[in-house]
């Protein structure tokens, strides 16, 4: 590598998804010259093939599910969805898969954008293969942040390359509902996409290899979602996986199941988890294994690479695969990079400005299904696994006046976990219509470590679903 051809910046960010954009924003705002490298669309998976399109597909389905049960409203909203209108809205929410708006923002933030495929090329160096086939060499004075995200993981099924299955990308960008859709995987992508396409007119078969849906969450969440999906007409099956699948000449997919059954579908979606986009980013040049998730410490510096110049932020570090949590990490990584560039001491204590403590203590997530599921912090299973002594308090949300106002047939459940020694909330799960907006209250309770005694003074308005907080406290007091 000859120095003449090398462009030098303070910070190089590889990957302009929501996380890379936020790292670059923070370092640029701090006065560090910053270049961001992007091989596809600025905005990443979230804007075009994940959060934005999926939520646009789901919103009418969830709203209708609530509205048909509100007296006086049912007949007006009970008909089928206008699929074309929903898909057109989805297209707009995905910016028609064009990134002009985000590129404008990058420019306005003083960040330089370099289009192409970025690869680490040893310490503080990155080589970028541009769409024109040129190689541009970059050097960082202070930091390189790898923010290359994740892609759908495919199961090791024989012949999968000829199957042309849907991944999360096709499931969020398809132009029409398949008549029959088989969904493999009971995680968040599987249940959200099953909900959306069933509502848009497909006949969905959801295949879970576990004994329930949403296996990483409190079991009651998956049970409520299963009930509603079945009521909506979906065929939800447990303890079953795909052993073979073949795309036939007529386009149909023939699926052989582990229980000996067979299934025919027009499309098959593998919603079977994520893999890091790290196989071709030069990890070997810094002593890391290509294709692996990149482990970091709480300051987001890559643990296995000395010198505190290499950071991995967002999905690629596997700490918490959510846009909001990756952006939180990005704000912290930006502050860490800036502090180190200025020669300042880091403050990496628990909940300190240079530590992404929330990644291990309070990751909030909403599953946008009917009903919604919102959770943050520990589940009972995680508390048991990590040996945490907790009290578990449950409450049926449907008993609340606010819930009955929301939807008279309301069914839902709340669970909080209370740390026995510290008497603070360490986990919360809500499953029920309209619970998504409750989640921030639980996140604040956990991160601020609000003493239970003080929570009694946080008065929820009547008649709202947030009265669940009062009922949970009363249930614990009276038990
Ligand atoms: C269907 C679906 C729905 C989801 N819904 C939600 C939701 O509602 N809420 C939520 O919080 N999260 C949701 N997520 C998760 C969310 O999409 C991710 O957590 C988020 O996109 C991660 O952001 P990121 O910037 O780390 O990675 P990405 O968004 O994957 O962005 C990485 C970027 O890096 C680029 N890149 C990769 N390699 C290179 C390279 N070598 N050189 C240059 N550029 C490169 C990519 O092109 C991409 O633009 C969803 C995920 C899926 C699959
Ligand atoms: N609303 C949201 O915030 C949202 C929405 C979608 C995705 N996400 C994020 O994306 C991440 C990935 O979601 P996901 O649903 O793809 O993954 P996941 O890990 O949550 O679930 C994967 C599912 O596929 C199953 N599976 C894996 N391999 C299989 C195989 N060979 N055969 C059959 N089943 C198999 C697993 O048992 C599990 O049920 C989530 O962890 C979440 O953080 C968030």
Automatic annotation (TrEMBL):
UniProt xrefs under InterPro entries: Class-I_Pyr_Nuc-Dis_Oxidored, FAD/NAD-bd_sf, FAD/NAD-binding_dom, FAD/NAD-linked_Rdtase_dimer_sf, Pyr_nuc-diS_OxRdtase, Pyr_nucl-diS_OxRdtase_dimer
Domain FAD/NAD(P)-binding: 9-320
Pfam families: Pyr_redox_2, Pyr_redox_dim
Keyword DNA-binding: no
Domain of life the protein comes from: Bacteria
Keywords per UniProt: FAD, Flavoprotein, NAD
Limits of the Pyridine nucleotide-disulphide oxidoreductase dimerisation domain: 363-469
Cofactor(s) recorded in Swiss-Prot or TrEMBL: FAD
Keyword Repeat included in the entry's annotation: no
Similarity annotation: Belongs to the class-I pyridine nucleotide-disulfide oxidoreductase family.
Protein name, entry field: NAD(P)/FAD-dependent oxidoreductase
Species for this entry: Streptomyces cynarae
